[in-house]
Amino acid sequence: MTLLHVDILTPKQALFLGEVIKAARKEGYDILATTRRYREVEEMLQLRKIRSIVVGQHGKGTLDGKLKASLRRTAELAGLLKRKKPAASLSLSSPEASRASFGLAIPHICISDSPHAEAASRLAVPLSEKLLTPWIIPKKAWLEVGARECMLERYRALDPVAWIRGHKVNSAVLKQLHLSGGETIVTVRPEENYAAYLLKRISGRGLTTLAIAKGLLKELGARVKIVVLPRYNDQAAMLKEKLGDRVAVAERTVDGSSLLTFSTVFIGGGGTMTAEAALLGVPTFSCYPSEPTYVDRYLIRQKLIRRQTDPRTLVKEVVQILQDPERFRASQSKRARRLVAGMEDPVRRILDVTSAYL
Known about the structure:
Elements: E1 3-7, H1 11-26, E2 30-37, H2 39-47, E3 53-57, H3 63-84, E4 88-91, H4 95-103, E5 108-111, H5 118-124, E6 130-134, H6 139-143, E7 152-155, H7 161-164, H8 172-176, E8 185-189, H9 199-202, H10 208-220, E9 225-228, H11 233-243, E10 248-249, H12 256-262, E11 265-268, H13 272-279, E12 284-286, H14 294-301, E13 306-307, H15 311-321, H16 325-341, H17 346-354
Helix pairs in contact: 1-2, 1-17, 3-4, 4-5, 10-15
């Protein structure tokens, strides 16, 4: 069988590329899935029952650490690809997959909705044969990070559509977080404080989402259940130290789509889960600590995301929604269903483009 290499570096990629892997196997392709040593993504891969080979590790929160980890991982990945000889390689802007593939003359197909992740984009995009991206990302944004116009392939969908369509809600997530399902749940996702594109933005500052959680506790107390989904072990330890047992801090990766289904409000410091919550019809706030991404801007225009970076103001707006949550949820769900219904299947588009190299 034709072998396709898929490199998976983040929880979002485990969700998105997991759907691509499932569809590719149905079409008869063999898959070589690789990842890196990184708690959240490894746990998500286990949750999704995706077998993968761990190559290298996450570079954490310094540029020096990221550079050295990436160089080591590129060399290790190149050795694996040389032995396995895949027909093509697929990733969401993996610098290591694109570099190793290019060096071994293996076509690399890049998928991305994040030109704002400039370092990864500049390293991965120019070495790729194709770049698949949502239609809302302007061509200029990709040309600025080294794309060639002829390589651009657009799909009329946002990435979370790939995994939220057909997702079966699993109530086991409630038991995992010691919830009953009858509570008013506010789910909080902290910002990505190790991302290269945010290091200068949040260096030396506390998490905005920590201040928000404290504000919600002060205003609402036991009337709501606050669930925090940390990204890293040190984030989890800090949040538990600061918030104690007043909130549910997830110690392991959870089925986020199911949790969002049970959530009354979602507050996101990042991009993926914020878009996912919005498309699932959950009243959603973004406190992303930089300029809004193209995806955020689109969903803000569609009135599916409220942008608010001031913790006090955001808490006040959440309290307002919780005075009549059913009304807000009904309105949000209607807009979200209408929007998602008009989007194509991004997995089908990705496989159609990739199959030309297999």
